[in-house]
Amino acid sequence: MSSSASGWSIRQARPDDFPALGKLLVSAYAALPGMPSPEDWPPYYAMLENVAARAANPAFTLFVAADDNGNLLGSIDYIDDLTQYGVGSVATITDAAGVRLLAVDGTCQGRGVGKALARFCIEHARCTGKARIILHTTRIMQTAWAMYERLGFVRFPEIDFQVEDIDVFGFRLEFTETEGSLT
After folding, report:
1. Could you give the dihedral angle defined by the CA atoms of residues 53, 56, 59 and 62, in that order, rounded to the nearest 10 degrees?
2. CATH number at residue 19
3. Most buried residue, 131, 146, 169, 178, by CB count within 10 Å?
């Protein structure tokens, strides 16, 4: 499965991508203003870096945007089975997929990579018969928050939670028969 844009494409992450992908995720999240640093939150950053562990879970598919030279521009985790999402309040949501850990390399931000990865997962969920897609974000991630709202996601406070004094907000996008294509 692949989708292409000017000079780059989206594909499933391969094992040889995992080390660079882990570094990309750590760098992207550590660069967010207001985000705890890797030194302040070692377990979270260890989880970000351990791409192989997430990829080993059959409910997860890790998608990457890569340029024509194979350089990784960004990534997103797509979760087909919400019992594996990692948040208890999400485990009982039916007929849905989830996305987590959207990250774009700092040198590639503003080029539409994150939006393309999100749209790719939305279309993947729709094509596999899901009725909705859910995600979480924080106020620290204002660019992502605004992008999700532009894509049609709405707040889903029933799945909000807090971790390390950070409020984490749930969002959902419901698919309907009358829905048009995402542009």
Report:
1. 70
2. 3.40.630.30
3. 169
